[in-house]
Predict the structure.
Amino acid sequence: MGIFELIYKVKDIMTRGFIKVYDDETLENAFDKMVKYQRDEILIVDNSEKLIGIFTIKDVIRSRYRGISLKDSIIKYASKNVLTIDSNSSARFARDMMIKKNIGRLPVTEKDHIIGVITNNNFRDTFYIRVDELFKLQNYVFDNLHEGVCMCDGRGIVKYWNKSCERVYDVKVKEILGKYIGDFFPNAMILKVLNTKHRIDNAFHEPVKGKFVVLSVLPIYDSNKKLVAVVSTDRDMTDEVNLTKQLEDEKKRVEFFEYAYKNEISSKYNFSFIVGKNKKIIDAISIAQKVAPTSTSVLITGKSGTGKEVFAKAIHKASKRTGSFVAINCSAIPVNLFESELFGYVEGAFTGAIKRGKIGKFELANKGTLFLDEIGDMPMEMQAKLLRVLQDGVVYRLGSEKSITTSARIISATNKDLKELISKGEFREDLFYRLAVVQINLPDLKDRREDIKDLSKLFLRQVSEAEGIEINYIDEKVYRILSDYKWNGNIRELKNVIQRMVVLSDNGKITVESIPEYIKEYINDINIKEYEYDSKNRYDLQKITDNVEKRTIEKVMKMAHGNKNRAAKILNIKRSTLYYKLSKLKL
């Protein structure tokens, strides 16, 4: 059934101003009414208003020729076998009936009562006007479809081209209408269907270079099963395809950076690159190597800058886990964002949530390692939720009831005393034991001075390569000065100092003058002079003894705030001896 049958019914196009007479009325009376109302037919009903006949202008002409008396009853000369149609029948059905029965009018009934009549004039003056309106409506609908609609006849000549086609292919209707489709699109799917006679559904196609569509093509047959037309509906997928390509490119970039990142982890953060001769650091490396292949939680403790994250990455690298190393600094996340950062959220979970939601750190670290730095700064309410995840191995995104299994290995780190925090009620004891299955403590740099020179050389090489600056000379006195500094910032501070010296170096040389002033001030000028002795005096016992004595007396004098009597008691020497040495040493 077509759109015309669905929309227009008999009652929409019939004439309601018909002439009705009763069966006992005369021909003369009927003629008068036909002339008065200018009608070509009269409908005849009985006393119950039921239609029993029809009298037309042709009947009038026949009665005149036969010399019939105008006083006769009209029913004697009317057509008795009258076809009728229901008012709710389709207009197309009414037209087909009139053509098939070769009749010029068709009474319309509703519950056996006449309510109108359809004549050929109705179809000429009303029905076809409505059909024209339908064509206009059809064009409006088709022109506003998202899909492009093209119809070609059996020879491939374009008969219809909607506005979406114009937009998709940048070809105007006046340019293509009446033309062969192959002249514009040599590989058009319409041509394929014209050849094969088989429909195509939801096929991906590139009609012209750079334009991608998903289309369906339908062959249309007449009543004799002859192919008379082909209709194509094309949905433009160019933006989606280009977006997909961009996403693929981005995916490749992410994979490249992930590969590069893993290579960086591999090259810079394995145990062979952790420099250390100090016993404490060697013990820490040994424990880390043993625990790395397991899924055991590790707690790394130590002051800021002692290399906790370096150790965590080395453990991850040695673990052979297939997932990523994901780090999160617990001290840098606002309390209200903690849960969303760790567990993620779905779209609409809260005001300000980004569209399509966000994946949490636990999911990102699945089958890998989640490094919780500064774990001592995690809020108490989040500690309980973290403990639950560690117990169950399941996370829930904010706003979702769907569970997500995670097998992230947890390595945490802190520069705080967690047991002291536990005693203050600021850290959960049960969480501590979950995190500190294995505990590794990293010493301060000042407690491993024997490693400072090797660390300095490592950082010099790394910074030189990164900055593209060649260092071809380093004064040995620089290493001795650096080894004597206090390094409150530990290894991180040392690396920053090395970077400063490299980028500010002159002609690829690093000398005592390259060392930052605050370090030289701490060592003080006297100590600097000690380092300025050339190599032949380095083991001169007398000079070494004099320097040690000088530094000791100077330090005690500062402690005594210049009180010589008190300084002499601390040094366990006579006051006269102290005066002598102060004079000798020019203090």
